[in-house]
Amino acid sequence: MLKKIAGGLLLATAGLGIASFVPAEPQPPAKPNVIIIFMDDMGYGDPSCYGGGPYTTPNLDRMAARGMRFTHFYAAQAVCSASRAGLLTGCYPNRIGIHNALNPDAKIALNGEEETIAEILKDKGYATGMVGKWHLGAKVPFLPLQHGFNEYLGLPYSNDMWPVHYDGKPYPDTAKTWRARYPPLPLIEGNETRRIIRNLEDQSELTGIYTDRACEFIRKHKKEPFFLYMAHSMPHVPIAVSKAFRGKSGAGLFGDLMTELDASIGKVLQTLEENGLDKNTLVVFTSDNGPWLNYGNHAGNTAGLREGKGTSWEGGQRVPCIMQWPGKIPAGTVCNKVAAAIDILPTVAAVCGADLPKKKIDGLSILPLLKNEPGANPREYFVYYYNVNNLEAVRKGNYKLVFPHRGRTYRLNTPGYDGFPGAQPDVDIAGGLYDLSIDPGETTDVSKVFPDVVKDLESIADNYRQTLGDELRKMPGTERRPAARVQP
């Protein structure tokens, strides 16, 4: 029989049952995926969309056209291990006891009590994977699987920490140099050594190995939310390029490498698109610090920023950063606000609905910047620490106050060539106030013109000296937490 119901529709009934249309329960939106692509020693001016060349980086350029390119983005510190600790934990590295570049036999490592991006997302049901350079502890229990990652394939530290000379030839057993005492360079899968990287030909395979594993991870986890941390070992020296890319750029070995690294990024992005994941994936591209300039034609460039890796000048710590998330981040936007790698964890937490770490962090969510909200400016100031705990500079707005300290310079000596380094001596730095809006090269001290700005920045620095300390002023700080201690 037919039964009339509200609205005039007819509903068929038979016996004791009623045949009716029941609307499906609305499905919650899929959790966004997150990919962080972290380069090693790539300078601010290296991607072609930042002025690099004469090679081209079309995939990075396409990322910038589809997303947001940052012009004032800072690594947590201007050196490998410290920078990576800051990225993964959202903390200034000195807060958690990590400094410099950890050697294979380092006595400290990232403390297991610190929560990483991988851990906060794993708690939300994310599959977590890493490929590439770790550099926060060289053995169990300090490898990625012990810090929230389900899967790992890569090097435990920098690719120059191996018993091989600058010319690519292994040191003889009789060699006396400290470099010859490095252990063999292991490629680790999970917690176990998969193979030994013995020479430059082996190194030339690394970019392809990382890329293939990253794409495999995406395909494997395409039906669940995932976090992928892809930390390339290059363009950190020694640089090496696979046969498919040698001589292709017309711009020497460094240009060939930039071409291959860009192609790697393109392959990851293509894998997202082929699996229908690109519109639900936040992709972050950035670098751990500026270029190692004393390696000359095997190093990149800073686009005119002062100095490079290992310094708190802009060339050491301001790095390229591009973020892509189609439909969420407005295409083709440029962000001129200050942001930093320590802001990525709280931003990812906000995007994915994850809890922030229980212990205090220094990062701030920059999601309002990604949405291009008018007037958004979450990071009012940024402090530049280096060495174990030296507060070397502070920035607020366009002004940067540099404090007197002793630091590296690349300006006094001719750089090396074809894989060999030039000298990089330390010198006394007088400091001063720089207006980065008109003087990004930090050439002219304007402290006498703006004494009130100096006073304001000094006050900010004093607050950090109280909490995070400052070895330049012999202040230990009240909020620093210890790194893990590595047993012999």
From TrEMBL:
Family annotation (SUPFAM superfamilies): Alkaline phosphatase-like
Signal peptide: 1-24
Keyword presence, Kinase: no
InterPro entries attached to this UniProt entry: Alkaline_phosphatase_core_sf, Sulfatase, Sulfatase_CS, Sulfatase_N
Bias type Basic and acidic residues, positions: 469-482
Keyword Translocase tagged: no
Chain residue ranges for the region called Disordered: 469-488
Domain Sulfatase N-terminal: 32-353
Family recorded in the similarity comment: Belongs to the sulfatase family.
Annotated protein name in UniProt: Sulfatase
Organism per entry: Chitinophaga caseinilytica
Lineage, opening ranks: Bacteria, Pseudomonadati, Bacteroidota, Chitinophagia, Chitinophagales
